[in-house]
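Narrative summary of target 7.
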Amino acid sequence: MHGDQKPAQVTIPPRDVVKRSITLGTEIPADKIPRFNGELLLANRLLTKRDNPSGPVDRSGIYWIDAGGARVIIKDCRLDATLAITNASNIRIRDGVV
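Modeled conformation, tokenized:
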């Protein structure tokens, strides 16, 4: 979204958006994500409905990760998709994420 938004233009996501993402989306297995000091590190990646460097693409652009209790760092990525993360002890978004 860009610019000023009127209340009628903003849709509040459903309460079960994570559950819905898991049901409809494609899993990115945690073992396909590099680890740095025990943390899952998503860095220098493009994630879209046409690009998933960790596995099969999801035609709707909906992905999810079960972090298994690990910390997750997302940095220097372009995310043109829905990304749901479950079971993370902490999630940090750093540097250039668009």
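Residues 44 and 77 are 5 Å apart (CA to CA).
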